[in-house]
Amino acid sequence: MRLSLVFQIIRFCTFLVALITFALCSLLGILLFPQNVIKRNRYLGYVMKLHSRFLLWVFNHHVFIKQTDPKISIDGNQNYLIVSNHLSYLDMLLISSFVPTSFVTSVEIKETPGLGQISKMAGCFYVERRNRSQLGFEIMELTEALNQNCNITIFPEATSTNGESVLRFKRPLFKAAILAKRSILPITINYLSINNNPITPLNRDQVCWYGEMTFFSHFWSLLKIRKLEIELVIQTPMSIEDYNEENFDQCSTDSHQKVSSFFRPIAISSINYNGEVLP
């Protein structure tokens, strides 16, 4: 058996052990808070934070935290609507390792074998992007969670990408922050290197999960990576006082500008015709 295969199997088994313990903690949350979904999600946010840090350590994923304003303290005294660009399912581990939060994801993820079960255990909120008939209820559900001091994380691009750019943000869910009068915390995710090689269009598919990629085959390939470096840029929270229900589309635009301003595109221009990375 090749050494790399043994390496993958060990990591996969470690992941399964972490997943089982997380499932047990999720079950405990249901027993502790059978009728209170918000309290259960707050509990799961802290559980996921611990598990995320453990998995990032096991996978040898190094996360470099950069705060644009070192004076800003992200603590339990204030909660936020967190907005971020989206490149991979790893994004959830990265953000959770920094701050306990509940995520908003699509019903399509809920219906994806494997990911659907994990997202349920993590206490995710779901939105139906194929049908907007439930949008009002979904916004009020997020508003209630914010009002009860939960951090909520959304990926407003509404899809994961290949890292060439940050797509235009969808605006409806920003209304929850306005209704709850909670600040918005912009976060930018940059995948920097794989096995000490800069990430480029030639190797990005080892990390970025997008398009028609299947989860299990991509995850199995991800386990081959010996070392992954990621940058997490935590920006100054945006006050919600300048926005209202009539101009919450501007809130989306301003958030996109902030996230994009620290984004490092995985650009084709960074490679020459010989496949070498340009300085």
How are the SSEs placed, and which strands pair?
Blueprint: H1 3-32, H2 37-58, E1 61-67, E2 81-84, H3 90-98, E3 102-106, H4 107-110, H5 115-121, E4 125-127, H6 135-147, E5 152-154, H7 174-180, E6 184-194, E7 197-198, H8 215-222, E8 228-234, H9 248-261
Parallel strand pairs: 1-8, 2-5, 2-6, 3-4, 3-5
Antiparallel strand pairs: 6-7, 6-8
Give short descriptive properties of this protein.
279 residues, alpha/beta, Glycerol-3-phosphate (1)-acyltransferase, eight-stranded mixed sheet, 9 helices
Structural class: alpha/beta
N- to C-terminal separation?
38 Å
Strand content: 15-25%
Number of domains: 1
Mean pLDDT: 88
The Rg value, from CA coordinates, equals 19 Å
What CATH architecture would you give? 3-Layer(aba) Sandwich
Question: Under the CATH scheme, which class?
Answer: Alpha Beta
Order of helices and strands: HHEEHEHHEHEHEEHEH
Q: What is the name of the CATH topology?
A: Glycerol-3-phosphate (1)-acyltransferase
> DSSP helix count?
9
Q: What's the number of extended β-strand segments?
A: 8
Which range best describes the helical content: under 10%, 10-25%, 25-40%, 40-55%, 55-70% or over 70%? 40-55%
> Biggest sheet, open or closed, and with what strands and sense?
8 strands, mixed
Ranges with pLDDT <50 over ≥5 residues? 269-279
Shape: globular
